[in-house]
Specification:
Elements lengths: L2 E10 L2 E11 L4 E5 L6 H8 L7 E6 L2 E2 L4 H7 E4 L11 H11 L7 H8 L4 H4 L8 H13 L5 E5 L7 H16 L4 E6 L2 H7 L2 E4 L7 E4 H9 L5 H4 L8 H15 L7
Parallel strand pairs: 3-8, 3-9, 6-7, 7-8
Antiparallel strand pairs: 1-2, 1-4, 4-5, 9-10
Length: 263
């Protein structure tokens, strides 16, 4: 399902979160949004799922404007926010059963399918959420948004706080989901290797605007063509152009999470 954002502006008080952002995401693609903290990624995602409205410009999912029919948007889009929590007293299976009932989904075994799909063992699914690790909570969150088989899957920093093994395991789950579904997947991160591994296309989003977008292999190749020192890259963010914007994002990501950045 195609996603289009055109000249989108969004402010919160004196803070400009999106500043004329324009972006098109082809139907069926796995699209990475790469940017540092504060770049406007989460704001864009809240617009995509109908949780907020732009101050100016348009955002459409499958041709439906988010300001016209937020309920329809939420039926189409499965959203996993960066921070997700569940009632401690419920088991994982009970959490998914509750989500299924609230959404009016048929009792057709999809809870069990979702548990299996994200790699939760049966004994883990029947454990109270209060005993879940961060990685298990992430898997449960993904299972909850997969229940209705959404046409669009929006993942906001889904591996935040996971150790390297947890990151790798979660990425493998996403790869299985994307390979077995024709859904459009939008994956947000400030870590380049995650986007490079999972996505076929990407956009670099510093300061609320798209500075570069295109096939991930072209963007990665452009960023790799670099024989300058890290000290010189800081100036790139002000020069414009695909290479400068991509290097700026990669530099900041490397500083934030060195354990996930490939050497």
């Amino acid at each position: 399902m195609r996603i289009d954002a055109t000249d989108v502006h969004k402010t919160y008080g004196d803070v400009t979160a999106l500043d004329g952002l324009s972006l098109s995401i082809p139907s069926g693609s796995t699209f990475g949004v790469l940017g540092t903290n504060g770049a406007g990624k989460s704001t864009l995602f809240r617009l995509l799922v109908g949780h907020d409205r732009p101050d100016a410009g348009t955002v459409a999912v499958g041709g439906t404007d988010v300001t016209d029919d937020g309920r329809r948007i939420r039926e189409l889009v499965g959203y996993l926010p960066e921070h997700v929590g569940f009632p401690d007293g419920l088991t994982g299976r009970e959490v998914l059963g509750f989500h299924s009932r609230v959404r009016g989904l048929p009792r057709d075994g999809r809870v069990a399918d979702a548990i299996d799909r994200v790699g939760l063992a049966p004994e883990e699914a029947d454990r109270r959420v209060s005993g879940y690790s961060n990685g298990m909570c992430r898997r449960l969150g993904l299972a909850s948004v997969l229940l209705p088989d959404p046409d669009v899957l929006v993942l906001d920093e889904p591996t935040a706080g996971l150790d390297p093994r947890g990151v790798d395991e979660f990425h493998a789950i996403i790869e299985e989901v994307t390979s077995s579904s024709d859904a459009t997947v939008v994956f947000c991160s400030h870590v380049l290797p995650a986007v490079d591994r999972l996505c076929d296309r990407a956009a670099v989003l510093p300061e609320g605007r798209v500075h570069a977008a295109g096939p991930i292999d072209a963007l990665a190749a452009d960023a790799a063509d670099d024989d300058t020192g890290a000290a010189n890259r800081a100036d790139d963010r002000h020069r414009g152009g695909l290479r400068a914007a991509f290097r700026a994002a990669v530099t900041d990501a490397s500083a934030d999470e060195p354990s996930e950045v490939a050497p």
